[in-house]
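User: Let's play a game. I give you a shape written as C-alpha cells, and you guess the letters that built it. Ready? Here's round one.
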C-alpha cells in the first residue's frame, strides 16, 4: 500500500500532499549511493507550554510523575528486546511485568509507612460490620466498601490518602495476576508443555481404587489445563485476601468486646454453662438435667447440654455472648479458608483455642498438606464433601458455620450470604467450579471409585452444569458476579473491570470497549480530538466512567503492551479502536508535559498510527532545542522521522483554513491605489502605504504551517525533504493571498540560511554554501542526467546510516546542480516575496520624502531613497529571466502560472510607479528603465511576462503606464531645459532624444 493510500485512512490529503509523496519516493536512491550518515544522540526533553500550564492534568501527572516515568523507563528498555527470538521476547516480557509489580510494591511500602495504621483500623471496622450484619438472621448482608475509593484517579489534593495505598496494593495484585496468567497460558518457549505433561502423568501411573485422594487431585491439575489455570486464580484470590482483609487473630479480637479477655478464648460457652449450673441449683432435683433453661434476658430457651451438636440437635439457643463467640470463631475459620491457609495452620489455630473438634468436623484429622478434598482413602474425600454439603444446606448454628461447610463441599448458595467483596463472590464460584471439574474427572478416570448408591443419596452442587460451557465458564462466571446487586457497583470500578477481564480471558474485549469509550469521551460535547479519531460505535457507561481514571488508563496500556508482545489475538477490525487506548495515554502525557515519554509509547502503535499520533503532538513543541531532542528520541524508538513530519505537515495543512478546499486561489493581489491627476509624481497609481501585513501578526493556522516547515530543518541529511514542504507551504500562502504569512516563512526560513545549513551534510563540506551562488569545482562536470533531475528524485525519507566518504569534485558539482533544480521554486517564490518587501520599504521612504509636513524627514533621505531604489531594481530583476516556469509536473506548472498572473502584473505596475516617482525625486535617468522594461516584456524570450498581462486583461493598462512615463520624460526635459551632463550615457543609452528644442 502506498503512503498516500495508507494516510487516506486517517485523513484526506490535497493535491499538494499527493505531490509531496511523489517527491518523497525519488531521492532515496541517491542518498543511499552516497553513503549519508545519520547520527543519533540520546537527549532529555523538557516541555513547557504556557498555554496549557494550568491544565488540570498537569497537576495529576506532577503528583505521580515518578511512577509514570518509571513505567516508561521500563518499557523503553524492554522495547529493545530480541523480538525475533521467541525465548528472549517471552523472558523479557515476563521480566517487564515483574518490574511493574516491583514499582507498585515499592509504592505500597512507602505509603504503608504513612497509612498502615489507618488500613488496619479499616480492616477492623470491616470485621465489625460483618458481625453486626450477621446478627440479623435470614438477611443477606450488604457489601462493604471496596478497597477502591470512588475516585481512583490521580486526584489533585495535596498529599496521599488511604485510598492511594489501597489502590497501589490492588495494582500490585493486578500485575501479579497478569504474571501468573502469562507464565501459565503462554509459557516458556523452551519447554515442551505437552511432553512435560505426558511425562508427569506417566510418572504418577494410572488411577485405581486405592490411589490416595491427594494424588488423584494432583494428577487432575496436571492433565486439565483449564483446572490448573483456575487453581492459579484461586491462589491469587487467596493472596489478595491475605493483605486486603483482617486475619483470623484480628477477627478473634472481636471477642474482647463481649467482656472476655485473651485467657477466656479457650473456655467454650462460659455464659451458657454458667446459666445451666444456676438453673440446676435452683431446681428441685439438682442431680437431674434441667428440663428447661431460660436465657438471662428471658427471651429464649437455652440448650441443656454442651456438646458441639447441642444447638442443632435440641433446636435451642445459647446465651447471647456465647452465640457471638460461636459466630466469631466460625468467621475466623472462614477467613482462614478464604485466605488459603493450609490445613496444618487451621488445625493448629483450633488446637490453641481448645477447639480441635472443629478441625475434626471439617475433615482435617488426616488430611495431606495442600489438599483441597480433605480425607484420604478410597472414596472418603468425595463422600466427605457430600456430607459437608448436607451439613451446609440443612444444619449449622449460623451463616458462617454453614459457609465453612459450604466452602468445603463446593457449594455456592450457602457461602454467598457471608461474601462481602467482589473477590469473595468470585472465589466462591471459581472454587465450586474447580471442585465440580474434579468430580467429573474422578468419575471419568475411575467410575467405580465412589459407589453410585452413595452419589445418588448424597448429591453435590454441580457448578459446571450451573455455569454452562466449561470453556466459557470463566467469563460467564465473572459477568454473573458483576450483575449481583451486592457488588454490582464494585464490579464496575476500573480495577475490578481490568482484573475481571484477565480472569475471564476477555481482555481484548475490554481493550476494544475501552478504546471506543475513549474516542467518545475525546470527541464529546462538540469537541474534536486531535489524537483520537471519532467513532460511531456506542460506548458502555462503565467504560465511559473508566475513561476518567488515568490510573486505570496507565495499567491497561501497559498490560496491552505486554500481551500484544505475546501475540494477543485482536480482530483486525478492532485494532484502530484498541489503539485509541495507547493514543489516549499519549494524549495524557502530552497534556501533562511528559513529551519525552511519548516516542516510547508511539513506537508500540502500528506505523501509520504512530505517525498520525506524533504528527499531532509536534505543534505543542516550539523550542528548537526541544524539537531536536524529540526527533532524536523518535529515531531511538525506530520511528520514521521523515514520515512523521510528512504526516504533521499534511495534518496542519488539512486542518487549517488554508486547506485545498478552504481557500481558493486569488485572481490578483492588489496593493496599488489610484492617484489624482495633480499628483503627477505617480503615473496615475501608486503603492498603498503599509500594504504588506505585519509578519508578526499572522493567524494561528498560518503560524502552524510556518512551524511545520521549520520542523523539516531538523531532518538530518535531507535536502529535497526540506524544500518540498517549504515550497508547498509558500505556494499555498501566495496562492491564497496571505502575503504576511509568506513574509514570515521567508524571514524564519530564508533560502540562504536553509541552503547553507543543509548543504553541509549533502556535500560533505565543513561549511555550507548558497547553491544559487556561483559554485565551480576544479573539474568541470557533465550535464545533469535526466534521471537525477528534481522531478524524479526526492528526499523525504532519511537514508540508512552509512559511513561518510569523501565526495569527488565532479560528483559534488553534479549534486550542486541537482540541489539547485530541487530548490529553485522555493528560491524564486522567495524572490517574489522579496519584491513585495522592497516595494513596501520604498513606499514608506517615499512617503517621508514627499510629505513636506513631515518633521522627522531625515537629512539624508535622498541617499536612503537612492539605496532603496537600487534594492527595488535588484529585487525585480529576476522577473526578466525565466521566472517561476520550472514546475516538476503539469500540476505545479499550473500553480506557478496562477501565482505569476496574480502577482507579476501588479508588481510591474508598482515598479513602473517607483520609476516614475524616482525620476522626479532623484534623477530623470531612471525613466530609461521604463523603456527597458517595455523591451523586456516585448521579447519573446520572456513570453511569460506578456502572457501574465494578456491573460489577466491588463496589457492595455500596461501600455498606458508606459505612455505616462514617456510623457513624464518630455515634461522633465521641458522643465529643466538643457540638463547638465545630458551627454552622459547610461549603458549606451541617452535621454537627449527626449529633449524638445530647435536642433532636435
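Assistant: Ready! My guess for every position:
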Amino acid at each position: 500500500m502506498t503512503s498516500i493510500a495508507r494516510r487516506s485512512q486517517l485523513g484526506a490529503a490535497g493535491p499538494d500532499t499527493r505531490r509531496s509523496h511523489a517527491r518523497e519516493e525519488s531521492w532515496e536512491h541517491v542518498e543511499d549511493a552516497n553513503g549519508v550518515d545519520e547520527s543519533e544522540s540520546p537527549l532529555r526533553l523538557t516541555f513547557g507550554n504556557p498555554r496549557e500550564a494550568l491544565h488540570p492534568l498537569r497537576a495529576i501527572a506532577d503528583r505521580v510523575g515518578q511512577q509514570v516515568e518509571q513505567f516508561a523507563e521500563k518499557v523503553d528498555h524492554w522495547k529493545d528486546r530480541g523480538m525475533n527470538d521467541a525465548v528472549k521476547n517471552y523472558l523479557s516480557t515476563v521480566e517487564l511485568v515483574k518490574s511493574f509489580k516491583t514499582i507498585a510494591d515499592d509504592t505500597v511500602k512507602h505509603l504503608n509507612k504513612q497509612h498502615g495504621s489507618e488500613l488496619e483500623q479499616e480492616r477492623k471496622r470491616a470485621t465489625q460490620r460483618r458481625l453486626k450484619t450477621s446478627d440479623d438472621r435470614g438477611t443477606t448482608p450488604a457489601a462493604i466498601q471496596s478497597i477502591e475509593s470512588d475516585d481512583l484517579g490521580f486526584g489533585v489534593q495535596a498529599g496521599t490518602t488511604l485510598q492511594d495505598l489501597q489502590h497501589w496494593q490492588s495494582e500490585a495484585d493486578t500485575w501479579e495476576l497478569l504474571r501468573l496468567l502469562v507464565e501459565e497460558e503462554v509459557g516458556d518457549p523452551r519447554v515442551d508443555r505437552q511432553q512435560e505433561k505426558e511425562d508427569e502423568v506417566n510418572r504418577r501411573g494410572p488411577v485405581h481404587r486405592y490411589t490416595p485422594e491427594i494424588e488423584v487431585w494432583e494428577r487432575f491439575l496436571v492433565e486439565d489445563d483449564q483446572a490448573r489455570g483456575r487453581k492459579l486464580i484461586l491462589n491469587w484470590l487467596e493472596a489478595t485476601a491475605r493483605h486486603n482483609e483482617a486475619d483470623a487473630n484480628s477477627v478473634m479480637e472481636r471477642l474482647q468486646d463481649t467482656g472476655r479477655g485473651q485467657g477466656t478464648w479457650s473456655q467454650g460457652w462460659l455464659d451458657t454453662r454458667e446459666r445451666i449450673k444456676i438453673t440446676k441449683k435452683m431446681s428441685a432435683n439438682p442431680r437431674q438435667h434441667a428440663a428447661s433453661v431460660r436465657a438471662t434476658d428471658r427471651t429464649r430457651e437455652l440448650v441443656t447440654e454442651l456438646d458441639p451438636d447441642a444447638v442443632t440437635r435440641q433446636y435451642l439457643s445459647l446465651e447471647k455472648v456465647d452465640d457471638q463467640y460461636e459466630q466469631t470463631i466460625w468467621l475466623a475459620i472462614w477467613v482462614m479458608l478464604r485466605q488459603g491457609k493450609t490445613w496444618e495452620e487451621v488445625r493448629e489455630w483450633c488446637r490453641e483455642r481448645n477447639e480441635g473438634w472443629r478441625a475434626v468436623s471439617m475433615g482435617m484429622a488426616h488430611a495431606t498438606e495442600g489438599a483441597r478434598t480433605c480425607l484420604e482413602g478410597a472414596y472418603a474425600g468425595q463422600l466427605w464433601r457430600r456430607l459437608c454439603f448436607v451439613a451446609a444446606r440443612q444444619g449449622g448454628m449460623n451463616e458462617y458455620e454453614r459457609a465453612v461447610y459450604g466452602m468445603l463441599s463446593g457449594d455456592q448458595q450457602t457461602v454467598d450470604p457471608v461474601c462481602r467483596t467482589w473477590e469473595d463472590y468470585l472465589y466462591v464460584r471459581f472454587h465450586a467450579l474447580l471442585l465440580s471439574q474434579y468430580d467429573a474427572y474422578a468419575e471419568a478416570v475411575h467410575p467405580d471409585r465412589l459407589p453410585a448408591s452413595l452419589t445418588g443419596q448424597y448429591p453435590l452442587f454441580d457448578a459446571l452444569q450451573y455455569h454452562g460451557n466449561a470453556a466459557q465458564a470463566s467469563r460467564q462466571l465473572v459477568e454473573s458476579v458483576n450483575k449481583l446487586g451486592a457488588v454490582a457497583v464494585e464490579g464496575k470500578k476500573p480495577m475490578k473491570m481490568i482484573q475481571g477481564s484477565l480472569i475471564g480471558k476477555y481482555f481484548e474485549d475490554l481493550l476494544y470497549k475501552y478504546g471506543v469509550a475513549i474516542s467518545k469521551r475525546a470527541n464529546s460535547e462538540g469537541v474534536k480530538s486531535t489524537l483520537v479519531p471519532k467513532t460511531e460505535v456506542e460506548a458502555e457507561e462503565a467504560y465511559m466512567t473508566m475513561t476518567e481514571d488515568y490510573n486505570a488508563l496507565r495499567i491497561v496500556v501497559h498490560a496491552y503492551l505486554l500481551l500484544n508482545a505475546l501475540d494477543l489475538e485482536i480482530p483486525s477490525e478492532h485494532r484502530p479502536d484498541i489503539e485509541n487506548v495507547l493514543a489516549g495515554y499519549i494524549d495524557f502525557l502530552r497534556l501533562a508535559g511528559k513529551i519525552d515519554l511519548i516516542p516510547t509509547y508511539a513506537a508500540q502503535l502500528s506505523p501509520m498510527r504512530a505517525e498520525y499520533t506524533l504528527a499531532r503532538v509536534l505543534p505543542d513543541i516550539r523550542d528548537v532545542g526541544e524539537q531536536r531532542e524529540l526527533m532524536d528520541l523518535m529515531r531511538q524508538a525506530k520511528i520514521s522521522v521523515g514520515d512523521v513530519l510528512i504526516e504533521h505537515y499534511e495534518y496542519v495543512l488539512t486542518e487549517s483554513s488554508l486547506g485545498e478546499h478552504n481557500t481558493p486561489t486569488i485572481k490578483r493581489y492588489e496593493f496599488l491605489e489610484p492617484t489624482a491627476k495633480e499628483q503627477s509624481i505617480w503615473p496615475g497609481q501608486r503603492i498603498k502605504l503599509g500594504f504588506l501585513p505585519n509578519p508578526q501578526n499572522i493567524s494561528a493556522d498560518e503560524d502552524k504551517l510556518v512551524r511545520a516547515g521549520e520542523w523539516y530543518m531538523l531532518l538530518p541529511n535531507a535536502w529535497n525533504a526540506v524544500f518540498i514542504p517549504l515550497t508547498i507551504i509558500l505556494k499555498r500562502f501566495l496562492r491564497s493571498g496571505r502575503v504576511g504569512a509568506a513574509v514570515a516563512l521567508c524571514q524564519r526560513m530564508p533560502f540562504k540560511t536553509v541552503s547553507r545549513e543543509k548543504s553541509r551534510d549533502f556535500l560533505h563540506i565543513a561549511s555550507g554554501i548558497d547553491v544559487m551562488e556561483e559554485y565551480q569545482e576544479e573539474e568541470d562536470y557533465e550535464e545533469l542526467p535526466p534521471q537525477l533531475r528534481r522531478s524524479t528524485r526526492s528526499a523525504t525519507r532519511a537514508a540508512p546510516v552509512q559511513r561518510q566518504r569523501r565526495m569527488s569534485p565532479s560528483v559534488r558539482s553534479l549534486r550542486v546542480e541537482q540541489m539547485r533544480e530541487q530548490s529553485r521554486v522555493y528560491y524564486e517564490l522567495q524572490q517574489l516575496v522579496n519584491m513585495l518587501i522592497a516595494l513596501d520599504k520604498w513606499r514608506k521612504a517615499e512617503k517621508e520624502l514627499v510629505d513636506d509636513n513631515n518633521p522627522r524627514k531625515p537629512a539624508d533621505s535622498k541617499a536612503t531613497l537612492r539605496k532603496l531604489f537600487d534594492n527595488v531594481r535588484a529585487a525585480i530583476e529576476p522577473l526578466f529571466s525565466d521566472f517561476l516556469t520550472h514546475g516538476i509536473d503539469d500540476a505545479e506548472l499550473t500553480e506557478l502560472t496562477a501565482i505569476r498572473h496574480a502577482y507579476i502584473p501588479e508588481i510591474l505596475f508598482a515598479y513602473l510607479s517607483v520609476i516614475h516617482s524616482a525620476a522626479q525625486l532623484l534623477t530623470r535617468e531612471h525613466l530609461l528603465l521604463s523603456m527597458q522594461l517595455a523591451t523586456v516584456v516585448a521579447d519573446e524570450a520572456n513570453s511569460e511576462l506578456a502572457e501574465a498581462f494578456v491573460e489577466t486583461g491588463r496589457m492595455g493598462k500596461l501600455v498606458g503606464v508606459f505612455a505616462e512615463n514617456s510623457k513624464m520624460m518630455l515634461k522633465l526635459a521641458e522643465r529643466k531645459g538643457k540638463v547638465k551632463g545630458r551627454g552622459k550615457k547610461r549603458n549606451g543609452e541617452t535621454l537627449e532624444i527626449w529633449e524638445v528644442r530647435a536642433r532636435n
